Amino acid sequence: MTDDRELWARSLDGDTTAFGTLFERHADAVFGYCLRRTGAWSAAEDLVSVVFLEAWRRRRAMVPYGASVLPWLYGIALGVSRNHHRSLRRHRAALDRVPPPEPAADHADAVVERVDAERRVAAVHRHLAGLARRDREVVEACVWLGQTQAEAAVTLGIPLGTVKSRLARAHRQLRTGVLADLAMEDRSDGPQSAPPGPAAPARRTGPRTP
């Protein structure tokens, strides 16, 4: 199979077929990253188009990391997802020139999968919300994307040592948060006191009335 470097070299000469092969190869991975970043399926679908439009526009400035362009594509996805509403407005005119895909039936299983995916992403976002943005982005690269620390440095455009220090700090903070969640669950799942029964009748201390 032709590696990314060769396809990218052909793209530099304007070979749209080679660039289309790169799109097919990496679009799902970029979509997954954008979904995790935005928490919204429709926004992630739009951002994938923006990412590859940006990649085509900036193709002459890119040097593949190893045999893959994916770390560089993740870097573009990170940038456009930071403020995706503004990015989408800027690229809407370009997207309008691209013929829309054939509509696909929205079957019930696909709807359930979409809702479930968004729910899982929302749960992850709650755990990451307490991190500083810079630390969170390192976690996303190394955990969500499964990148090595060196690849994450390429994606984020920062030194390798910075990746290591931010990842260690995020790990400590996330561990504290998870332990707090577990402690809260233990308290909520513990034995509950029985609800009070009906009040006993008051004892009478005086003489009975005949």
Automatic annotation (TrEMBL):
Q: Which GO terms describe its molecular function?
A: DNA binding; sigma factor activity
Transmembrane segments in this chain: where? none
Where do Low complexity bias regions lie? 200-210
Spell out the Gene3D superfamilies in the cross-references.
Answer: 1.10.1740.10, Winged helix-like DNA-binding domain superfamily/Winged helix DNA-binding domain
Tagged with keyword NADP: no
Query: Cross-referenced Pfam families, in alphabetical order?
Result: Sigma70_r2 (PF04542), Sigma70_r4_2 (PF08281)
Region (Disordered) location? 184-210
Q: List, alphabetically, the InterPro entries matched.
A: RNA_pol_sigma-70-like, RNA_pol_sigma-70_dom, RNA_pol_sigma70_r2, RNA_pol_sigma70_r4_t2, RNA_pol_sigma_r2, RNA_pol_sigma_r3/r4-like, WH-like_DNA-bd_sf
Cite the entry's keywords alphabetically.
Answer: Sigma factor, Transcription, Transcription regulation
Q: In what residue span(s) does the RNA polymerase sigma factor 70 region 4 type domain sit?
A: 124-173
Q: Where's the RNA polymerase sigma-70 region domain?
A: 22-90
Claim: Transcription regulation is one of the keywords in the record: yes
Would you kindly state one Gene Ontology biological process term found in this protein's UniProt entry?
Answer: DNA-templated transcription initiation
PANTHER family from the entry? RNA POLYMERASE ECF-TYPE SIGMA FACTO, RNA POLYMERASE SIGMA FACTOR RFAY-RELATED
Q: Which NCBIfam families match?
A: sigma70-ECF
Q: Which family does it belong to?
A: Belongs to the sigma-70 factor family. ECF subfamily.
The entry's protein name is RNA polymerase ECF family sigma subunit
Q: Which organism is it from?
A: Micromonospora palomenae
